[in-house]
Automatic annotation (TrEMBL):
<dbReference type="InterPro" id="IPR016188">
    <property type="entry name" value="PurM-like_N"/>
</dbReference>
<dbReference type="Pfam" id="PF02769">
    <property type="entry name" value="AIRS_C"/>
</dbReference>
<keyword id="KW-0784">Thiamine biosynthesis</keyword>
<dbReference type="InterPro" id="IPR006283">
    <property type="entry name" value="ThiL-like"/>
</dbReference>
<dbReference type="GO" id="GO:0009228">
    <property type="term" value="P:thiamine biosynthetic process"/>
</dbReference>
<dbReference type="InterPro" id="IPR010918">
    <property type="entry name" value="PurM-like_C_dom"/>
</dbReference>
<dbReference type="InterPro" id="IPR036676">
    <property type="entry name" value="PurM-like_C_sf"/>
</dbReference>
<dbReference type="GO" id="GO:0009030">
    <property type="term" value="F:thiamine-phosphate kinase activity"/>
</dbReference>
<feature type="domain" description="PurM-like N-terminal">
    <location>
        <begin position="42"/>
        <end position="147"/>
    </location>
</feature>
<dbReference type="InterPro" id="IPR024030">
    <property type="entry name" value="AIR_synthase-rel_sll0787"/>
</dbReference>
<dbReference type="InterPro" id="IPR011413">
    <property type="entry name" value="UCP036540_AIR"/>
</dbReference>
<dbReference type="InterPro" id="IPR036921">
    <property type="entry name" value="PurM-like_N_sf"/>
</dbReference>
<dbReference type="Pfam" id="PF00586">
    <property type="entry name" value="AIRS"/>
</dbReference>
<protein>
    <recommendedName>
        <fullName>Sll0787 family AIR synthase-like protein</fullName>
    </recommendedName>
</protein>
<feature type="domain" description="PurM-like C-terminal">
    <location>
        <begin position="182"/>
        <end position="299"/>
    </location>
</feature>
Amino acid sequence: MNHDLPALITRLHTFSGLAHKRDIQQVAQQLRDAWPNPSPNGDDCALIPDGSGYKLLAMEGFINRFVAEDPWFAGWCGVMVNLSDIAAMGGRPLAVVNALWDDALPHAEQILQGMAAASRAYQVPVVGGHTNLRSEQPQLAVAVLGETTHPLSSFAVQPGQTLMVAINLHGRWHPPGYNWDAATHADPLALRQALSLLPAMADEGWIQAAKDISQAGLAGTLVMMLESSGLGAGLDLTQIPIPAGVELEQWLCAFPSFGFLLAVEPQHCDEVAERFARCAISCAAVGQFTAERKLIMQYQQQRACYWDLAQQPLTGMNNH
């Protein structure tokens, strides 16, 4: 299918996942005077110095309607998305905690069953949390602790590095919305092996930075990565791995279960792609990081600016 690139960009800008990321600007402004962490805020996890390495800390909260209407999957995602954040930082998970509010025990049990299933699949313990079963509505937040010795940070991306995308295409849509489920029906061993790839390649020095593709979609997540790095990028839409039968516009808005943006030195691109391929993960070079603070999209012979960070912030989380 052919696309008019400017029209596609206009539609992508209206995607609701971006609006949620813009909300971070207001939070960031209020917390600038809080006691500082040595590492800048804006990566998928907080990076906390700990002896010769680092502890990683992240948290995800979920839209109340999602938790109310799809409790088991919300519980599963509570674990899964946090583990992806740890992996994106080149880390290995240690434990998960939750904050669960609900108005009915049977509904809360479904959330907890989803969390327990993901905990078993990924072999990461749920070690505690906070529970309130007398709430007016279901609410869920989940946090994760991890560790790394070779952190992957968006703040470390350099111009000239190759932009790669690694995505598990072996899934299916989980309606409603754009959730691509490549996890709940997968072999648990395969899930763990795939998630271990990023910290392993971080240790080997093959990957310089990574970011988990979030509900902002591939393009929105890339804008956040560029915001932290103070850079821009060229993105060739025709090179992005896409499942058969899925439209490009859908895929650019999707949360893909296992999907990462990578900054890789050109000489390591083949090694990185081959390592992902061993775990049936599609990985391809889709562009290059540049000094100009713009995300330029290319589709066939068309080129257009998707985002100009010099003119318009997204999250406001940067160190520049």
